[in-house]
Amino acid sequence: TSRHGSEISMFDVELAFIEDQHDVMDVVEESLRYTLKETKKEAADDLDMLGIDLKVPEEDFPRIKFEEARRILKEEYDHEPDDPEDLDTKGEELLGEHFMEKGHPAIFVVGYPGEKFYYMEAREGDEYQSRRFDFIYKGLELASGGQREHDMDRLMAAVEDEGIDPEDISFYLESFKHGMPPHGGYGLGIDRLVKQVAELENVKEGILFPRTPDRLTP
After folding, report:
1. What is the pLDDT of residues 38-73, one digit of tens each?
2. How far is CA 210 from CA 7, 159, 204, 206, 214, in A?
3. I need a surface site. Which of 90, 137, 176, 177 has the fewest CB within 10 A?
């Protein structure tokens, strides 16, 4: 698709001893703002050649609940994603449009249903259902992440609820037996970031030699 390549280049960040998912989002926000500032400075001639006026958002990135995102899509655009536990591509584009009109090119969507990923922390009584988030920049999801479950008992209960054989993920579960600090992280698609910064129609336009199912070289 215009958002996917056959290969992916990703910036992966893992953090330990965090308070909650907002600590992870703080890193996403700070790193993107720094990246845009440096790109604007170091690639000024290239951006000028492309006719791009790269804006660096100075205000805090809005953090909206999943339910609020669904409400905006329904009330403002009469759009309802088919999956009640997630957003779709069109929904992300519309949310981007909605917030860009308000001067916010970058937003977080938080509080997805807890059962979506068994390894994400989700506790009864949380303000949000789970401690997962998606990061949307100019209408395209650039990153996903959150606070992962670190308690062995709760993790095993979630594994059981999902019907997963613990033996199949024993390599993952083993470390939790020795104690795991509150932790989280995220992965950010580098090619998608290039696409949005360079205002490209297709992510593959920003890859020198994009591989496809039919071509491996050059």
Report:
1. 999 999 999 999 999 999 999 999 999 999 999 999
2. 8, 37, 6, 9, 11
3. 177
The angle at the Cα of 71, spanning 123 to 27, to the nearest 5 degrees, equals: 55
Nearest to 24 by CA among 58, 69, 61, 68: 61
In a domain, 216, yes or no: no
Please tell me the distance from the alpha carbon of residue 124 to that of residue 197, in angstroms, as a whole number: 39
- For tokens 């020795």, name the residue: 178
Write the CATH number for 199: 3.30.930.10
How many Å apart are CA 122 and CA 200, to the nearest integer? 37
Contact 203, 195 (CB under 8 A): yes
Work out how many domains the chain is built from and give that number. 1
Structural domain harbouring 127? 10-204
Q: What is the length of the chain?
A: 218
Residue 212: inside a domain: no
Q: Give the model confidence (pLDDT) of 150-186 as tens digits.
A: 999 989 988 998 899 999 999 999 989 888 999 999 9
Residue 121, Ramachandran bin (φ over 0: left; ψ between -120 and 50: alpha; else beta): beta
Kindly state whether residue 109 falls inside one of the protein's structural domains: yes
